[in-house]
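Input (protein-ribulosamine 3-kinase):
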Amino acid sequence: MEDENQVKARALVERLLSVPEQAAEFIDDNVSSALPPGSTIVEFGPHGTAYWTKTLEIKAIQASGTPLKYFLKVNHTHAGGQVLEGEFASLEAIHRLLPDFVPKPIAQGSYASDPDVHFLLMEFLDLRGDVPDVDSLPAKLAEMHLKGTSPNGKFGFHLHTGPAFLQGKYGQSITWSSSWEALFTSMYIPVFHWEQSMHGKDDEMQTLFKSMIEKVIPRLLRPLETGKNKIRPCLLHGDLWDGNTGTDASTESPLIFDPASFYGHNEYDLAPWNLPRHKIYRPYIREYQRHFERADPKEDYEDRLLLYRQ
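Output:
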């Protein structure tokens, strides 16, 4: 039998997933006002699939006659709006650094017709139906990591960029920290509490969680910031599995999207590539290492990737 926390957690997920159908059946005034002045929307409709949002393609024409295409994401609830705010900030950070690596973010906000419905508008990019090539994505990601330095030299971000279910009560902390170990720990704890709220308490899992916090995380991350070792905070995508990548159909260059960015250890972004079920896997990690060397101590590298998979 589910306890009160499980009931509340499942209710939260159900509400986040139940984006009103009518929210994607028209273009709200706050969305249309974000288009270039004089633009006319000529067509819009569903495009692609997403777990937490409704997604649409918008076709418009500028006053000059130039055709435009946009991608619109729509969700609802306060937590959902915070997720889109975080994604917009993430896209802005990456686009400033490497404008050909992500869609250009245009606007983010709430519907004029319903303040509980939120949107994210970005440029529409035509994609090829495959993951980026092993010769292109790792090099581009390494370039982002090498160039994307933290504005204040610390780990973290200026707002929350994680999943909707880690908003509010489960408040995953992405606030600024001078320590990668401290930031990672503050991100890890709410994930465990969320899983516990969904599946119920388990004594063995509680014991393992205590060991992770007190032993495993310090053992693997503290050496990265001890003695001569000093990793620097890099701009991360934050959720770089193959479903969040693509190839630009016109330029054939790699693209990434749906970021949940923050400044952290660059190896964090490689963790999803260590899963055999993904299309982007170990060869991509090996290619990445040609552009960004493993951190010291190198003998802990594989264990760090396992930890970052969390």
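The radius of gyration is 20 Å.
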